[in-house]
Write a structure and sequence with these properties.
By secondary structure, the chain is an alpha+beta fold. 35% of the residues lie in helices and 30% in strands. The strands form two sheets. A six-stranded antiparallel beta sheet has the order 2-1-4-3-10-9, covered by helices on one side.
């Protein structure tokens, strides 16, 4: 296994994606070589396995970036639908292991459980923390404790869906209702239930 193939395999294993089918690898190689051939005065590099793997890796990276960009920045959906669609995509990636997905700016981190558990789609919640233009979104489930860093302070909170459908947030210092005046460590907190998007 050459170094590029090893790196690609490690990255795909980390993302828990299916291996790239040989047919897709061949199509990426063909497109890359076709582009080289069509350029004026272009020289076609000799076919070496490392060159072909580099082209395949570049094609795979472009596809992954395109899918993530489309998922994270879909301008045509209302905010709640975008949140539901985003959460559904994350659930597919980490089926049964997702505790929380935390999005802060362009950064995305995950809390995963060791054991697979299926949670009902009606238990999905998004917590939004806002302070001076800083935005942190936490996608999780009712009853799952999530810990995050709010400007140097470690805060652990458990969102809960009440019988009337409203959301409350239980921290070690307070119980917050889903009102606009909820605040933790100077951050305005909003809590919303998310509906399952139709696939």
């Amino acid at each position: 296994m050459n170094p590029i193939e090893k790196i690609l395999s490690q990255e795909l294993a980390r993302l828990r994606t299916n291996p790239i089918p040989e047919r897709e690898k061949e199509r990426a190689r063909y497109r890359a070589l076709s582009a080289f051939r069509s350029a004026k005065n272009a020289t076609i590099p000799q076919k070496s396995s490392s060159f072909l793997w580099a082209v395949s890796l570049a094609a795979a990276a472009i596809i992954v970036v395109g899918v993530l960009t489309a998922t994270l920045h879909s301008p045509i959906l209302p905010k709640s639908d975008k949140n539901s669609a985003f959460f559904s995509e994350i659930e597919k990636l980490f089926a049964g292991r997702l505790v929380a997905a935390i999005r802060e700016g362009d950064s995305l981190s995950f809390e995963l459980s060791g054991a697979r558990t299926e949670l009902p789609a009606d238990q999905r919640i998004v917590l939004t923390f806002r302070k001076n233009g800083q935005l942190i979104e936490v996608y999780t489930y009712s009853g799952r404790e999530v810990c995050l860093d709010l400007n140097g302070s470690q805060v652990c909170a458990t969102p809960l869906i009440r019988s009337d459908g409203s959301v409350m947030l239980v921290t070690n210092a307070a119980v917050l209702e889903g009102s606009a005046s909820s605040e933790i460590k100077g951050f305005q907190v909003s809590m919303d239930r998310l509906q399952k998007t139709s696939s």
